[in-house]
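Q: Could you fold this chain for me?
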Amino acid sequence: MKKLINDVAQVVPDMLAGLAALHPRLALLQGKNIVLRADAREAAARGEVALISGGGAGHEPAHGGYVGHGMLSGAVAGEVFTSPSTDAVLDAIRAVGGSAGVLLIVKNYTGDRLNFGLAAEIARAEGIPVEMVVVADDVALSANGDHAGRRGLAGTVLVHKIAGAAAAGGASLAQVAQAARDAAAALGTMGVALTPCTVPAAGKPGFTLGEGEIEWGLGIHGEAGVERGRLVPAGDAVARLLRQIIGDLKLQAGARVALLVNNLGGTPASELDIVAGAALAFLARQGIVVERAWAGTFLSALEMAGISLTLLRVDDARLALLDAATQAPAWPASGGRIAAARAVPPAPSAPAIDHGARLSAEAPLRRAIDAVCACLQASEALLTDMDQKVGDGDLGISMARAAQGIREDIDRWPSEQDPAAVLRAMSATVRRVVGGTSGPLYAILLMRGAAALEQRGRGDAAAWSAAFAEAVKGVMELGGAKAGDRTMIDALLPAADALQAALSTHQDSAAALAAAAAAAEQGAAATASMTPRRGRSSYIGQRAIGHADPGAHAVALWLAALRDALKS
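A: Sure. Below is the predicted structure, expressed as structure tokens.
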């Protein structure tokens, strides 16, 4: 287990102390794991209904992040995935409760219902008006199945928002409770997990998933779901979740909803955006009107990778409550309004020059380009593996993407009678389809080579050799690398030198190209003993020793492919 904690026993108080320190409008109840609005007592004195929620820790930002004017008055945290005690809930009620009363919003778990319910009974006996609303939005479980009841999931956060806005607007306890109950009844949530999570006190995951397995319909406490299946594309996962929710809520075309895309803890923002886009598109195809949508981490299960989707039926009144202002730090400031589909057209590029004839399929230049593309696509996995050991792992896919782009564009390129124009066209393709470091370096390699060929006005072996040398200089100038820095230059520069040396001794072009390929291979192999001074490898220093530079190895591969293609 690897976690950024100090002491397993102090996870919750340490976490809450950090939360309160970051947000001046929050306070901690002394000696307790309870987050309060700093102005909670003043709000109660003004006659505002107080809202309390909570449960086990591990669901951050829930529930302390939703404390603030317009949402919760207090949040009670138990140990990780463990309900807080009755006395802890009672302490919170006493701290924030006034004559207007207190609403408890409770997720449907046995421990939470028991402890919050008993605290409510005691508080009422003390003269504090208390109501309790239980949220059970989990549609993965049947409504009347043989289980402890549908669980409360991320939809609970929307209930916080609606009830909090009603309370801030001056509604009575009965009115606030009814708004919360109505919202809870209009909710549906279902999730899917890609990984389990690890409770700090347990030190190991609550379940295991095999390679390529996912868990459908799970809760938020590290437990397994209702079904295990194979990993599917994001769009397919979204469709399954939404079909279940739509069916449970009996939504028809024209229904108005709010959508919540929730990160279970370890899902990258990029994947959340993919899921959100797929969900919006799916709902549009069903004719369901998405009035508001949010994507982010709302109610998590520690570091679990996965998502849950929530739909809430809305009307104008409920939308007004969702739109109402809040000072709760974890509620998104975006407002949740859906952007109309739009695309800004790019600025016009320079007009393409029509060279008339196209590159012939039988031309040696075409044969050489095809061979290089085939080599790079076949080497994608190898280059990826090499780059993962010393860099960021994107070289293989970048080279394969360049090859694919070239193959798609090559039939529109100029004739082999103008090799400089062919190189320029190739450079344009590479810089369009490949980003990162590789894209601009290969683009300049081809641009400089094209310029040098054009200056010489011919395409014999000597001209190509001189163009290659100029191209390598261009890469060195743009990238800033030199020989010995452990980069692609350590293969390119020896190859360029070997090509010129071989031609200067009157070797034929095939022999000269073979010499260049051999020099590149030797140069690439030598990088394994070099300390990196440029590129991503420079960040890991001596740990790169023993592994050849993947960029240099890629150069050796495509030069060998050129040699083999042109020797016949």
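A (continued): The longest strand covers residues 50-57.
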